[in-house]
Amino acid sequence: MFGFVSDSVSMEVLPAWVPPVGFTLLPHAGGFLGSKVTKKEIPVWYESLQKPSWCPPNWVFAPVWGTLYTSMGYGSYLVWKELGGFSEKSVVPLGLYAGQLALNWAWTPIFFGAHKMGWGLVTLLLTTGMATATTASWYNINKTAAYLMVPYLAWLTMASALNYHIWKDNRNKKQSE
């Protein structure tokens, strides 16, 4: 119905290691591109913002995001594999995953690139909702995949609270600083 490539065709073409590695590395692509924006903005703009006392130090973010991207990426592979590849059955769980990943990748250019702290918060809240829906949809397909999303959900909760406090405490600052 959707014209998906049958699993037997796609699996014959690719070596067995390609899907798990590809799915695991995919989320890192947006993180890598986003880091280009972030690195420019941390020393001047981000450092100038008032942040709560519980804000993690800057060096924590890269290893945490690396771990979270690896975890969610491998979870997406487990769901893909369990459902037999890209098929009608995988549209919703992998579509939700793709949606939350796109929102995740959009946050950095919105918050760091455009200095839109309020829109960054909106993006994070949408990401959290989509990631929660993704996790729920994965639970009955592959529990391990769903559990691999739990640390991400916890981090998104903290990141949303942090983004809220930064927005609340700095919203009167000139946006282009």
Write up what this structure looks like.
The protein is mainly alpha-helical. The protein has helices spanning 7-13, 18-48, 58-82, 91-113, 117-139, 143-170.
Q: Can you write the helix and strand succession as a string?
A: HHHHHH
The chain-level structural class is: mainly alpha
- Taking the alpha carbons of the first and last residues, their distance comes to 51 Å
β-sheet strand percentage:
under 5%
- Which spans have pLDDT < 50 for at least 5 consecutive residues? 1-9
Tally the helices: what do you get? 6
Main beta sheet: strand number and arrangement?
A: none
- Per the principal axes of the C-alpha atoms, what is the gross shape? elongated
Q: From the alpha carbons, calculate the radius of gyration and give it in angstroms.
A: 18 Å
Q: Summarize model confidence as the mean pLDDT.
A: 91
| Strand runs, count | 0
**Helical content class:** over 70%
Topology readout:
Blueprint: H1 7-13, H2 18-48, H3 58-82, H4 91-113, H5 117-139, H6 143-170
What labels describe this entry?
about 180 residues; mainly alpha; disordered N terminus
Quick summary:
This protein is 77% helix and 0% strand. The chain is mainly α and 177 residues long.
